[in-house]
Amino acid sequence: MTAPLVLLPGMMCDARLFDAQVAALDATVLPVTGAETVPALAAEVLAQAPDRFALGGLSMGGIVAMEVARQAPARVTGLALMDTNPLAEAAHVKARRQPQMDRAAAGGLAAVMRDEMKPNYLTDGPGRAAILDLCMQMALDLGPEVFLRQSRALRDRPDQCATLRRFERPALVLCGRDDGLCPPARHELMHDLLPNSTLTVIDGAGHLPTLEQPEKTTQALRRWLEET
Predict the structure, then answer these.
(1) Less Cβ around it within 10 Å: N or C end of the chain?
(2) Residues 48-76: what's their mean pLDDT?
(3) What SS3 class is residue 197?
(4) Could you give the domains of the chain?
């Protein structure tokens, strides 16, 4: 019997990021909103997750998923890393965090999302406007305090390359071909680090293939789950 699937959403996203996958795969989505360090967020996931589970995460959710696999590798039957990054935050990205946090804390969360984050998310396509609207709604529903906690967690996150080298269970590394935030080359690195992984690059998608190409993404996840 396949282990239950737990999915972790990206920064300023909620379960709506995975609506198609939840419906098709009977997945559970857990939040990554309640702490301001990646290790603490991973501990919260482990406190809510089943004893053994397959784990997928997109973007920040993937970063937390790697930490879950580091903290409790025996509980994770498989790992799906989507549009994410195993490295500690680069200095030039870290330098942008505090101005974004200051704007959000001063009432400018919508402006930060509109001007600095949303334009980097998606490839061009007929559903782009509706997906961007959903991204904005998810962010506003979560609010500035979550933005501040998640920003601190990402800024101070650990490098997880050693974690990936040690994870021997089935892994899926997936990204949109046009992901500008976490480009395919970063996923090739994760694929090379993981001893038992499949690399899938989704055409017609940027940073959010679960929304941009939900059927292709779900198919890749289903194939991976059959191996776990």
Answers:
(1) N
(2) 98
(3) strand
(4) 1-228 (3.40.50.1820)
